[in-house]
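Why does residue order matter? Because the sequence determines the fold. Keep that principle in mind as you read this record.
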Amino acid sequence: MDSALTLVRRAGRAALSMGIAFVVAFLAMAFTNNPNATPMGYVPRSFVTTYSEPRFAAQAEPLLSQFLEWSVRLLTLDLGRIETNDGMVSVTALVAESIVVTLVYLVPAVIIAIVGGTTIQLLAVAVERRDLTKKTTLLGAAAVATPVFLFAYLVHIYLPVFVFRLAGRIVDLGYGSTKGPFAPRNLRAALWPFLTMTFYLFAIQLRAAGTDLEQYAGEPFVKTARAKGVSLLGICRHVFPHSAARLLTVLSSEMLGIVLVGLYAVEWVTRTPGFGTLTIDAVGSRFPGLIFAVVLLPVGLVVTVNFLQDTYYELFDPRVDRAE
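Structure:
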């Protein structure tokens, strides 16, 4: 019963966080001037036109009425329509398409980063040198501190050379806006953001996993396993269950904000028409429905992941203190 009440309270806090994010976004749209009202407005990449209406507070309809209208429209996913090169499309469809483009390269990048970073740190714990975990963690921290657009720049320089030598001919690595995200040309174009995000997320996981696993390097059960001649993989299998929950959720909780910031930078630099590019275009274009979508989706992802993680700890992990 106590666990159920705790989860209900946390669900309420999650819903409150979503409400606060919407209110903040609405107030920003209500009281900040729209630069697109002038001829020198923003030029988006993801669509054709921009929103040139004045701020909400300067429009004829009362502010409260507009707030209630957009609240209902958000609940019904009626976010309006926007002009693209393919004609008028709904904001919901545009957002969904951009998410698919992002997931095509981001999902494999996340999987490789989590598996690779965790495996290296587990092996560092399994060997007898205790300073190895610290060194790998320091390496990950240094890589995380490197701006992600520098990763993108290096990939941009060397990827065409590698593809040319592999294929024996010049291959178009640009994204084709008239084709779907799974078209061969666009899958090739996804190599640029994929490699960049893989390096970046690998560094994040290497640092996070090292910080969490370092404490086990000198534990008695690890020393005993080494003394008995247990293989490195065997020691890894002993150590991994102690930190499995945190290692598998670190990119989706504590590091999620860093990942999103990196996503915005990578997609803009690589000219990938994914969710990161659409977010920047939404801010520049000032379309209300699009702004609410790109603001609330990441907030909803963060609060949902944190709620699921809290639910796991509350129901299945006895090491967590459930008292509030």
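DSSP finds twelve helices and two strands in the chain.
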